[in-house]
Amino acid sequence: MEKPIWRVGRAKSLLFLLFLLVCFVMMYQHNASSSRPVNVVRSLIIADDGLNGAAISQEDDRLIAKIRTKYLLPPPAADVPLNLTDPQEFDTSMGQSQVVKRLLKFKRHGFFIECGALDGEIRSNTLYMEKYLGWTGLLIEGDPSNYALMVHKHRKAWLSPACLSLKTYPSVVSFEQNFNMGQVSHYPAGHSQSGYVDVQCFPLYSFLLALNQTTVDYFSLDVEGAELEVLKTIPWSKVDIKVLSVEFIHGPQGKDALEDYMKSLGYRVVETVIHSNNLANDFIFVKD
Question: Measured between alpha carbons, how far is residue 241 from residues 19, 25, 86, 286 in Å?
């Protein structure tokens, strides 16, 4: 028996609507993928500007200018509110913030540096000081995807889409993207495997010079095992870092090597912050 014309028309309409829906989804996915922040951040890496490698001092004026103009995003205006996923969360850290707050006697308007800043909110060790004590500082995040998320949090701090160098000079490295466990990989720059991206690294001291800020009240360092290497790049006689929290669980040299090195600089461990599921394994250092 022949189907009624209205049923045939309805079936065709449904098929047409389904076709439009599929096209819309495909267009959305294409646009989303084409606008991923990774490509935007990758464009910051200048192919050959002559300012990478062992011949470049971490105090080179050209390097400092490069960081200032291309790798530092200033804080938003004071009247721009934070854009947090959970604005009611009192302290996003795993306890580090409260220890640091006590050690610095509830200091207001201090200056922090957080490297391994993730998205600027999840397990941030510095957000508490910013929200409740009026601090500002520098948030460094090497994973371009995390950095893009961090920009939208409107943190009242400088942001940098870079990583801290493991040497006393700048370099481009292959960075393994893995959300909260991203790290400088053992592959050379240019490694094309999925999940790896080239990222520009600068010594910490170069960042401090670019910000005209060699006094740091609190330095939070969590770079998945490269902490000791980063610390060894710092010319300690030229900076004043009062309190540090440094993750020790992934370092290949072991936590004793980390503690011994900091002790040689006049720092001591005043507390160890440990949390279940390896969410925190940090030494808190202060200068004697």
Answer: 61, 51, 30, 9
Separation in Å, CA 31 to CA 24, 26, 27, 35, 50: 10, 9, 6, 6, 35
Mean pLDDT in residue range 168-194: 76
- In the chain, what percentage of residues exceed pLDDT 90? 65
pTM for this model (two decimals): 0.82
Is residue 174 a contact partner of residue 45, using CB atoms and an 8 Å limit?
Answer: no
CA distance 266 to 247: 19
Residue-wise pLDDT tens digits, 68-107: 999 999 999 999 999 999 999 999 999 999 999 999 999 9
Give the residue among 216, 284, 276, 280 at the shortest CA–CA distance from 246: 284
Residue 259 sits at the vertex; the CA angle it makes with 253 and 265, to the nearest 5 degrees, is: 115
Cα–Cα distance measured from residue 56 to residue 58, given in angstroms and rounded to the nearest whole number = 6
Q: Residue 241 forms beta bridges with which residues?
A: 216
Whole-number Å distance between alpha carbons of 227 and 249: 10
Which residues are within 8 A (CB) of 120 and not within 5 positions of it... i.e. 6 or more apart?
Answer: 127, 139, 141, 149, 150, 153, 155, 159
